[in-house]
Amino acid sequence: MTKLFEKLSRLSYPTILFIASCVTIACVLPLWIYIARQQTRLATKAMETIPLVEIVKPASTLSNRGEPTPMTGPVPLNPPTITRVYPWVGKVGDVIIIEGKNFGVYPKNRRLAVGGAVVEETSISDWQDSRIEALIPPDPQQGDTAAIRIDTHPIVESIPLVFYDETATVRLRKHPCIFVDCKRQAGNDCYSPTERKNNAFYPLSQRRNPFFASFG
């Protein structure tokens, strides 16, 4: 024993640190592996005891196509009012935004139509009390309006809109002798679309009624 102490006393300080590190690792590493295994076993047992519950959405939040739709909210007390629709020039599939008030937040018995077509619920991305965002449905015609009906409130319509067919071929040519006074010829508002009759431009004379105008 005395000789062992003498040999240890002759060792340099770095050698002593190296030996101490090796001993520490040799003792701590098995203990750390044992603790890690125990934690893994406890976590596995906990997962096995927790039952898996399948989450099913209420039927009222699914459309006829099985797609999720927002829950219906209350009907606003006052009738809706449309103050702005933009862009007022567009084509099928474009986003149309309707601004106003008293639209409600996804109220029940709501209808949105553009001209002769009702906009499907899956094409309405947002319906808030002062803003509705949707896609333009198929078969729009010049002079059609955006119309809203909520429950028993009267139907409200926007100003006539302009629609175009992106597949149509239009040939344009420059004519220096034609000048159109938009404000004078288009109903004095510079926003309504016009139609050409006898080389003159006038406000659109005919509009289609909303498709749901005959709803009960």
From TrEMBL:
It holds the Pfam family TIG. Residues 80-140 form the IPT/TIG domain. Gene3D superfamilies: Immunoglobulins. CDD domains: IPT (cd00102). The chain crosses the membrane at residues 12-35. It comes from the Bacteria. Keywords: Membrane, Transmembrane, Transmembrane helix. This is IPT/TIG domain-containing protein.
